[in-house]
Amino acid sequence: MENYANKRTYNNIPAKADEELVPVLAYDLANWKNDCIKNGLGKSETLVDTRNLETWHYGGRKILVGFVAVPKDKAAIAIDTFNKERNAYLEGTRKKRCLISDGKGGLVICPAKKKCNNCEHQGDPNNITARCLSYDKFLEDNNDDNKKGFEPFQESNVEEIVLLKIKLERLIEKLKNINKEYASIIRLLYEGYDKAEIIEQLGIDKGKTQAYALIKKAQQCAKKILEEDN
Q1: Taking the CB of the first residue and of the last residue of the chain, which one, N or C, has fewer CB atoms within 10 A?
Q2: Quick check: 26 and 65 in contact, CB under 8 A?
Q3: Is 8 a member of any domain?
Q4: What is the largest CA-CA distance in the chain?
Q5: Which one is predicted more confidently, 53 or 47?
Q6: Among 86-95, 172-181, 202-211, 213-222, whose mean pLDDT is lowest?
Q7: Which domain holds residue 22?
């Protein structure tokens, strides 16, 4: 059995003496992290450190993996499970199938096959794969009241989608410690709401100019955090 002792865990918490590191698909990590946040466990130590993720190559295909600590007597079973899930993942995404929202904050492989042009999931505001993978576009301030944070695009790169979701959730968690209203604004932009909709959703009781200035401040604060992280 391959040894992963030289790797780092997805959350930088070292394995204990009776534990061993094993690989796991990165989009599972994104889902697990969301569950932690929902259950009130969204502390910094539960967030995914993307620097500890690796891209593995299989016959010209790429998958993003992280590492988790499991009891040593469960390591072989965990690695066997990873291999099965990896194969299912490679097969499931072989035809460029997208990752879509499961409606609970997680990601699942789109069940539709070879029906992308008429897919019922296309344009779904909860489907992050239907948006432009660009921080600049996402945090760009503009004068169009109806401009969305993301823009539609035709093809998606699963690895980039997973990283984007992890990084955006991490950004939002950091914003909560600075200004909870900023965090709510960025989350709504992330979910595809335009400025007018955000003002209505959050019940921002300010004049239009002040409300838009607040959204701009939230975007500027988010950009500053991203620049400091890079």
Answers
A1: C
A2: yes
A3: yes
A4: 63
A5: 53
A6: 86-95
A7: 1-94
Mean pLDDT across the chain: 76
Amino acid identity for residue 172 in this structure: I
SS3 70: strand
- Cα gap 220→29, rounded to integer Å: 28
The dihedrals phi and psi of 17, each to the nearest 5 degrees, come to -60, -30
Distance CA 124, CA 113 (A): 17
What residues pair up with 54 in beta bridges, in sequence order? 65
- Contact at 8 Å (CB) between 183 and 175? yes
Is position 181 within any domain? Answer: no
Residue 4 lies inside a defined structural domain of this protein: yes
The identity of residue 75, as a single letter, is A
Report the distance separating Cα 6 and Cα 18, nearest Å: 16
Q: Which residue matches tokens 């019940």?
A: 203
Predicted pLDDT at 20: 95
Helix 158-178 crosses helix 180-190 at what angle (to 10 degrees)? 160
In a domain, 177, yes or no: no
Q: How many domains is the chain built from?
A: 1
Instruction: Give the SS3 label for residue 121.
Output: coil
pTM metric for this prediction = 0.57
Q: Which residues contact 11 (CB under 8 A, 6 or more apart)?
A: 45, 46, 47, 48, 49
